[in-house]
């Protein structure tokens, strides 16, 4: 009798396991795996870049991806050397990463050239359609998506407008930039159009390498009354030197990347990079959960910041007008 009951119990148990088996296996398959995410930055790990990296990781953690548990981050920094980007891309690809996160037009191009299969999220890039990175913002196709910093004529005009308000009787502005940047080439016409409407003459000064910085700012001091420093990995990587040269040449400068403010810049107006990196984390989360980059439209920023530095203004002999101080999101004293 006891043996019969045991056989009956085992039969029922096996039937129960057989019935639940598929659901058990499905649950195991849907359990979150350990995701390996590459973070490749064209700049250096200090300053604002560290804040942006933190914003990315914090948002990923809020979405359930915790570093050291189900997330492995593979960080790499080019320290302003665009030529290093292809090597860094190849390195993380060889490690079998699930997603590549980077920023900037040169890095976007390097990532796109490096892989056509691994999903790529660009935290910030300048005009991806105009520079040929994608054919459409709404339908990026391929394996790349992210956020665009396309500078319209109105946005470019904002830089000049703010510099005009800051520098009395401003009539000429030096545009310090790397002409090899696809983004710079794209927005040059918009800048010229905006400057013409505001009665300001632009003088483009090219910087291809760090050794050209000193002469660039000396030339700017002789020929203009203010400077506009356009975004480029080289200029951002050497931002300490750039800001020091602007100060020593007593040249009021507007910066188009917020990173410069941690090096003593006078003022910067740009998209809120912390918000952009939090949004980039959301893209990464969707991709890790099965979404395709081609189905995620490239978005444009909605949050911008104006930061000014009163100490730098005093060093230049400038008094920032009340109109600037009231509009500033942050005032460094």
Describe it.
With 333 residues, this protein is of the alpha/beta class. The chain has two domains: 35-150 and 273-302, Rossmann fold (3-Layer(aba) Sandwich); 153-271 and 305-332, Response regulator (Rossmann fold, 3-Layer(aba) Sandwich), CATH 3.40.50.2300. 44% of the residues lie in helices and 19% in strands. It is built from twelve helices and twelve strands. It has a seven-stranded mixed β-sheet with strand order 7-6-8-9-10-11-12, with helices on both faces. Strand 6, helix 6 (182-197) and strand 7 form a beta-alpha-beta unit. It is elongated. The relative contact order is 0.13. The model is unreliable at 1-32 (pLDDT under 50).
Mean pLDDT: 87
One letter per element, helices H and strands E, the order comes to HEHEHEHEEHEHEHEHHEEHEHHE
Largest sheet: 7 strands, mixed
CATH architecture of the largest domain: 3-Layer(aba) Sandwich
Summary?
The chain is an alpha/beta fold. It is 44% helix and 19% strand.
Structural topology:
Elements: H1 2-30, E1 35-41, H2 48-62, E2 71-77, H3 85-94, E3 99-102, H4 105-114, E4 120-125, E5 144-148, H5 153-166, E6 172-177, H6 182-197, E7 201-206, H7 213-223, E8 226-229, H8 233-237, H9 239-248, E9 253-255, E10 267-271, H10 273-288, E11 304-309, H11 310-315, H12 322-327, E12 330-332
Parallel strand pairs: 1-2, 1-3, 3-4, 4-5, 6-7, 6-8, 8-9, 9-10, 11-12
Antiparallel strand pairs: 10-11
Helix pairs in contact: 2-10, 3-4, 5-6, 7-9
């Amino acid at each position: 009798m006891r043996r019969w009951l045991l056989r009956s119990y085992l039969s029922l148990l096996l039937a129960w396991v057989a019935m639940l088996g598929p659901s058990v296996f499905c649950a195991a398959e849907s359990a979150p795996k350990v995701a390996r995410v590459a973070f490749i930055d064209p700049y250096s790990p200090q300053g604002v870049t560290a804040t942006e990296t933190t914003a990315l990781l914090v948002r990923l953690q809020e979405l359930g991806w915790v570093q050291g548990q189900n997330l492995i981050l593979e960080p790499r920094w080019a320290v302003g050397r665009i030529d290093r980007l292809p090597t860094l891309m190849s390195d993380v690809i060889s490690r079998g990463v699930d997603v590549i996160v980077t920023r900037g037009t040169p890095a976007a191009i390097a990532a796109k050239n490096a892989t056509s299969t691994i999903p790529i999220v660009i935290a910030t890039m300048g005009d991806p359609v105009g520079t040929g990175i994608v054919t459409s913002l709404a339908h990026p196709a391929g394996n790349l998506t992210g956020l665009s910093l396309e500078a319209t004529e109105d946005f470019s005009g904002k830089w000049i407008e703010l510099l005009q308000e800051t520098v009395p009787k401003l009539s000429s502005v030096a545009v310090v930039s790397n002409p090899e940047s696809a983004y710079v080439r794209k927005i040059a016409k918009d800048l010229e159009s905006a400057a013409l409407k505001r009665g300001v003459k632009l003088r483009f000064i090219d910087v291809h390498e760090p050794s050209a910085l000193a002469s660039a700012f000396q030339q700017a001091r002789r020929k203009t009354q203010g400077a506009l420093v356009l975004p480029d990995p080289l200029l951002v990587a050497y931002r300490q030197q750039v800001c020091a040269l602007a100060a020593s040449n007593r040249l009021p400068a507007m910066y188009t990347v917020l990173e410069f403010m941690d090096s003593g810049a006078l003022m910067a107006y740009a998209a809120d990079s912390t918000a952009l990196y939090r949004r980039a984390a959301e893209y990464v989360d969707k991709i890790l959960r099965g979404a395709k980059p081609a189905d995620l439209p490239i978005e444009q920023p909605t949050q911008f910041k104006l930061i000014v530095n009163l100490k730098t203004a005093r060093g230049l002999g400038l008094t920032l007008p009340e109109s600037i101080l009231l509009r500033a999101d942050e005032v460094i004293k």
